[in-house]
Amino acid sequence: MGYEIKGQVGLVTGANRGIGKAILEGLLQAGAAKVYAAVRDPSSVSGLIGEYGDKVVPLEFDLTKPELIENAAKTASDVSLLVNNAGVLKTASALSENALESLDFEMQANVYGLIRVAQAFAPVLKANGGGALVQLNSVASLKTFPDFTTYCASKAAAYAVTQALKDQLKEQGTQVVSVHPGPIATDMGHDAGFDEIAEPPELVADGIVSALQSGEFHVFPDSLAKEMGSAYQSFAKNVIEPAMTEA
Asked: Whose CB has fewer CB within 10 Å in the chain, the N or C terminal residue?
């Protein structure tokens, strides 16, 4: 069962640049009535407001600050489509001196932040007919790359939470989508050294729109992601996506 984006009110975290900006624009192009741009610095979306007018609404937001998440849920009480795109990355292996510090930093945003967002916005989505929640995970949630061990651990945890939300929020009619990009041309991708293999962020936006419309749970938007998704498909379809009871 697909989700109709046209006329919906969206919210995209980290919407001022990179993948988040592409998603915001993709939702508007798909017919969203308006999209809240949830960012640390609301002035950073002035360019988007200049281009799209009152269809873009700036909203102060930070995944590591529960009070801002709660305020956002109160302010954006008309949201029916939430895309949690924001996240952080540190370059740290398991043997790095800063491994625990990096892991704590990434868990705070990438995992605890997701849980805070889900808890704050699940009632909002329910009140607005169920809607949809889209979580930006990563191919790093499926495979650990040693130089980014702590980031991979945080994304694996976020993917686990996303799977649980899929089953729990289904009861209130909320569609959940888990997005697993590979190297994407963003500031984060540049800092991680992915420039030579990075692909456009619009691929992620297009993948999300397609998954919402088709009712798919997993999105593997770019070349590397599609390759990994193809190998993962059988397990995903037979183990992850079906509702299963605990042993």
From this structure: C
List the structure tokens of 119.
Answer: 């808890």
Q: How many Cβ atoms are within 10 Å of 145's Cβ, its own excluded? A: 12
Tokens of 224: 């590397």
Which of these CATH numbers, 3.40.50.720, 3.30.450.40, 3.90.20.10, 3.40.50.2000, describes 9-240? 3.40.50.720
Judge whether 193 and 23 are in contact, CB under 8 Å: no
Phi, psi of 218 (to 5 degrees): -95, 145
Q: How many C-beta atoms surround the C-beta of residue 5 within 10 A?
A: 22
* Structure token pair of residue 238: 């037979």
CB atoms within 10 A of CB 245: 4
Mean pLDDT for each consecutive 10-residue tract of the chain (247 residues)?
Answer: 91 97 98 98 97 98 98 98 97 97 98 98 98 98 97 98 97 98 77 72 97 97 96 95 70
Asked if 69 and 117 touch (Cβ cutoff 8 Å), the reply is: yes
3-state class of 199 per DSSP?
A: strand
pTM greater than 0.90: yes
Residue 46 has which token pair?
A: 């002035």
Ranges of each domain in the chain: 9-240
DSSP tag of 41 = -
Take residue 151 and report the two structure tokens written for it.
């980031």
Transcribe 122-185 into DSSP letters: HHHHHHTTS-EEEEE--GGGTS--GGGHHHHHHHHHHHHHHHHHHHHHHTTT-EEEEE---SBS
